[in-house]
Description:
The complex is a heterodimer of chains A (about 300) and B (about 290).
Chain A: E1 4-15, E2 18-29, E3 32-36, H1 43-51, E4 58-63, H2 72-76, E5 79-82, H3 94-104, H4 109-122, H5 138-150, E6 156-160, H6 168-183, E7 188-193, H7 196-202, E8 205-210, E9 213-219, E10 226-234, H8 239-247, E11 251-255, E12 258-262, H9 267-278, E13 282-289, H10 292-300
Parallel strand pairs in A: 3-7, 3-8, 5-6, 6-7
Antiparallel strand pairs in A: 1-2, 1-4, 8-9, 10-12, 10-13, 11-12
Chain B: H1 21-36, H2 43-69, H3 81-98, H4 105-109, H5 112-117, H6 123-142, H7 144-155, H8 162-192, H9 198-222, H10 236-245, H11 261-284
Helix pairs in contact in B: 1-6, 2-3, 2-7, 3-8, 3-9, 3-10, 6-8, 7-8, 8-9, 8-10, 8-11, 10-11
Amino acid sequence: MSDIVISARGVQKSYGSNHVLQGLDCDVGRGITGLLGPNGSGKSTFMGLVLGLRPRQGGTLNVLGVDPDQSGPELRARLGYAPEHHDLPDDVQAADLVRHIAQLHGLPRRAATERASDALWQVGLGEERFRPIGTMSTGQRQRVKMAQAIAHDPDLLLLDEPTDGLDPVQRDDMLALIRRVGSEFGIDILLSSHLLEEVERVCDSVVILANGVVGHSSALDGLGSAASGVKVELDSDPQPLASALAARGAQATIDGHILTVTGVDEIGDLVRDLVADLGLGLRRLEPRRTTLEDVFIEASR
Amino acid sequence: MTEARIHDRGYLAYDGPRHGPGRAMVVLSYHTVQRVLGLKRSNWQKVMPAIALLVAFVPAIVFIGLAALLPASNDFELGDPAGYYVPISFVLFLFTSFVTPEALCTDRGSGMLGLYLASPLNRDTYLASKFVAVIAVLGVMTIGPTLLMLIAFTLEGIGPDGAIDWLIEFGRVLASGLAMAAFWGSLALAISSLSPRRTLASVAIFVSLLVSAAVGDGLAEGAEVGDSFALLNMIALPIETVYRIYGEVNPDGPPIRNVETLPILLTFLGLIVVFGWFARWRYQRIEVTG
């Protein structure tokens, strides 16, 4: 299998005068990829295009080697999808629902029954598999959604806000499950979320959408390395230090008692000397590290 | 000897056979038939379909019983399959209004539509599967009793004379039943496509049928603006269509009995097409992600 799972070039999608995707370019590789973006950035629209639910209006899109617009049914047989909403039919047993979806994806009835049972065990609902979904908690319903998405052994799994509505413990469990599906089960995952911390915890790479285009796309293991500049935390108002740094050509942004300083060489020495000259109390001086939040904010601008 | 057990097989890849989209349509149709009939659901959900099926078949069983017990005579009229639809049309009317919306509405209300469209089905094959399922269920009520009577009367020696007549009668039974099922089914899907709420769809079907009957007959007979307006009566239209398939006119029917056969058949087929087109138009516009 190719190392590129999804390849998009100049993808456009509009609803009337609302141009949701405006020439989106990205490559989604194997492993777990986070699809980040503020509300309205086009995440769900992109998911819909990947699933072949809507035709795009421009550009090329290749998912698992095929064009979703041309080969939607054949492609969707190889995809698993867990939607964002919490609704599932209340009066259906979890095992029946998962088996039904597996059959729709082409599995013969007996194989679908066996794999539905296995999938529910894998997501931790083995003992609960014959319960009607209406009697299940939000966390259990999310697990049912995960089970129905993996029962037919898809090549690519699309998860839309899989931790939405979960409490912290349930969220941890779900993230661990996603990590397990992506690593142990060998299923590539595109995880749509607006929670940076989740993406940082489970994903191998990230695609950030902003205003209908890709604002940033990279592997996550590069984050956390040192970037240019320093972070300075003072025990008092940092404005005098910011002004002094600006007078020497540095750029300083203030966030509470913390200054992020960039733009000049030997910046650590400069900050140390200015803090001493101004008689300020220095709590922390460290190299600036790029976080996903930094990248997200930068990409969203 | 120590007994070895496998407690966790881990995740196993599936490399067995996979069926295509055609099989997915069959799976969905079968599942929908089960849902509509209340199978694998609470007993309460089974009540209405069970009563409807019972009421649809009871007259046929009574006719067959009478034919078996009573000596055949010229006074005993058995050969009026078209007329059979008059007494059971009320059951079909109620069934269409209060049971068939389950086929579409629940999938939207429960979010299943998103899962279906993320499978090898698309919007058209999804709707086609639902249509087939609804026709199958309605067909049990519209074809089943008359077919049962045909077979029973034939076995009792009072059926059509000769193989040709029998095949013609058989064709009429199938055509009539399918026509009724297609009309009620397409009407139910069209109105159900307007709302994810089953109750709302039920009321809308019920009221629209009653209003169509009142308006159609009111214009044709009350206001006397023309018999053609009786075609608006969507309760009488399918029954009269069945009479015309048998080459008859409903003798005691509403004003639509005065309309020529061709306008009746064209209106009947046209409405099925319009209902189907409307449901498709609605489903092309429904968003299921985000």
